[in-house]
Write a structure and sequence with these properties.
Aldehyde Dehydrogenase, Chain A, domain 1, homodimer, 4-stranded parallel β-sheet, 14 helices, alpha/beta
């Protein structure tokens, strides 16, 4: 089958979406429970499929980090099951009336939440995304076409087979979850042309993947791009607090998109703050790149290149720049940042408010670590990812962001004059 | 200048957007007032520019309908001014806190409305869109790059010059409103590649234009596509009400997207209803195309082709089909419709509720004309258009749909564990 039979699968997802569209929360929860049971039943088979992927990974000399991401064990499958159980507990926004408008002519107009319909998800790396994303889409009444990374193909195929067993058990169409079971790159391009069947495509991955998808998709895209996050330490900052926040945002988990990649420091406290924070970061193994002024205060720093300012490292590297004031910090962040998450550390309320207002990012912080940009930390209960665009959803995307609206109008024979 | 100097203008819009982003409602209203004054001042010059377009239209033998759309006079300019005054009165959603979340760790998270940023609008025909769209974008804090139809190029250029005079008067950057002053089609393609500068592109026009833009844009698109709207007359309908609704939806203004194009009639009332409604429609000059069963009841009907079911006529034409029940009607609408506006006429509450729930359209009606799908009729105060997609905005798009959100987080030194 050419390119994984994409149009046929997209159509099957579209058809199934009209069944899911009208499912009650009870029916959708019954499905999710069945998925948990089938996952438990099939642990040995899932691990066996995963072994095939691990064998190919070893042959292809995949890095330890990527191999670790790919690896499943009983504990990780148990975590997937817990994730699905958490989604069961969440309330389902479908059918909620967001707004009710009573018109002078007597028309009663309700703006009601409905599923998006047919969702495409393109992701890389970890096989747990297969279960997480499917559970969130199903709970919000959406059918889903999945396209995972080629390294995890056998594991993903097996996980989707498990979901299909559960769908069959609760009498829902198999097309509610389809998987593109080819590693052929052309399949992604074909998926992006299915505007007849798919209502949205959500890509999760590198900026390169996202840009490729944005440039080639006829289907509307919700981009989950990279995070070049900044901490700006203001002249009025509490120095001890600033050190803790910078250290946390850089070191606690450097491989994620809400980790800090850049530190901007007000020139009047650079002499006091920079040597102190640099020592702490260096002890944790962080490589420091600095502008000319930073180099004067941090002896083991290496010069930052111009390209550093727009880079996402996802690693123990930080680039530091001394700025002359708040305006320069805001301008730098809006210019070189990725509009993901940025923070100011300051005791000056009006500086804090200006930063929050003027920095054009999905999440802006005063006196807290950027690491909090996350669906669970924001209290959304779960997340399908973190949107870095302004349309439809921005920042952590929860269940409610997997819905659209429709206007439901009750009349008594009204006609337009 | 190649293709109207698009990248330079897009960049100018982006830069201006950061100034508008932080404008108060008072400043934005002052700008809109200045636009009203400058329009009043410049009526002779605007009419003069319009004459040039009308002269080209006559030379190109443009149809009467299109020439009428293109024509300005003092009254139509006065209507534009009234439109801007109406936008001044609307409340500006920017800065509104949609949701406030207090986390157990003490973080205070506010979900706040912010402008989208830099908006591209691609439209055809009527020059009043230039003023309407600019006013709505400016009021919601967005800078805008406009691309109007080639027939109105001189009028549009003049109208944008008027806006720029107003911008200058209130000390806002000229880049808040830019216009692509070339009729070169390549300029549209170039506009769609400005993802670095534009946050969204809103095309208004034919389905052909929309599809071209969706297939070629790297910038996120909010599509305003066509309306293939249905009225389904149920077996339990009030026949007199059904006749009024069908007549209104088809005849009152056939050239707009919320006019009815299709009539579905339950087989058990076809004999009673069809001859009656057909007579009324025919007297108003409506051409009737019908399926085989309809032809038996309507003597002057011509046979409908298979392609009729998915067509938007925007004219005094209707296609009629007899269906065996509610299920067949819903299935037909979801399959052949454009997911814009669809109505059922019924006295049976459960039939009405099923139709409202299961028809997957932006606006669904029970016992009312589809002609109400409109920002003013829905009480939004104004509309930038009617979205036919599910992402971000669906149905009539008001001021609030020209905003995005940002998460504003206040902490006291919180770090992630």
């Amino acid at each position: 089958m050419a390119a994984g039979n994409v149009p046929k699968k997209a159509r099957s997802v579209k058809e199934a979406s009209s069944v899911l569209y009208n499912c009650s929360s009870r029916q959708k929860n019954a499905l999710l429970k069945a998925i948990v049971f089938r996952l438990r039943d099939q642990i040995p088979e899932i691990l066996q499929a995963n072994k095939k992927d691990l064998k190919s990974a070893a042959a292809a000399k995949l890095s330890d980090v990527l191999t670790d991401r790919l690896t499943l064990n009983e504990q990780r499958i148990a975590q997937m099951m817990e994730g699905v159980k958490d989604v069961i507990k969440l309330s389902d926004a479908v059918g909620t009336v967001v707004e009710k408008i009573k018109r002078p002519n007597g028309l009663c107009i309700e703006k009601m939440r409905v599923p998006l319909g047919a969702v495409g998800i393109i992701y890389e790396s970890r096989p747990n995304v297969t279960i997480d994303a499917a559970a969130l889409c199903l709970k919000s009444g959406n059918a889903v076409l999945l396209r995972g990374g080629s390294e995890a193909i056998h594991t993903n195929k097996k996980l989707v087979a498990v979901i299909k067993t559960a769908l069959n058990e609760v009498d829902l169409p198999a097309g509610c979850v389809e998987f593109i079971d080819t590693t052929d790159r052309a399949a992604v391009l074909e998926m992006l042309k299915q505007e007849k069947y798919l209502d949205v495509v959500i890509p999760r991955g590198s900026q390169q993947l996202i840009s490729f998808i944005q440039a080639n998709s006829s289907v509307p895209v919700i981009a989950h791009g990279e995070g070049n996050c900044h901490i700006y330490v203001d002249n009025s900052a509490d120095i001890a607090m600033a050190e803790e926040i910078v250290f946390n945002a850089k070191v606690q988990r450097p491989s994620v998109c809400n980790a800090a990649e850049k530190l901007l420091v007000h020139s009047s406290i650079a002499a006091q703050f920079l040597p102190r924070v640099a020592r702490r970061l260096s002890r944790a193994g962080v490589e420091i790149r600095g502008d000319k002024e930073t180099l004067a205060f941090v002896e083991n720093a290496i010069p930052a290149a111009q390209t550093d300012w727009s880079k996402e490292y996802l690693d123990l590297i930080i680039a530091i720049k001394v700025v002359k004031n708040l305006d320069a910090a805001i301008m730098h962040i809006n210019r070189y940042g990725s509009h993901h998450s940025d923070a100011i550390v300051t005791q000056n309320t009006s500086h804090g408010e200006r930063f929050l207002r003027e920095v054009d990012s999905a999440a802006v912080y005063v006196n807290a670590s950027t690491r909090f940009t996350d669906g669970f930390e924001f209290g959304l209960g779960a997340e399908i990812g973190i949107s870095t665009q302004k349309l439809h959803a921005r920042g952590p995307m929860g269940l409610v962001d997997l819905t659209s609206i429709k206007y439901v109008v009750h009349g008594k024979g009204q006609i337009r004059k």
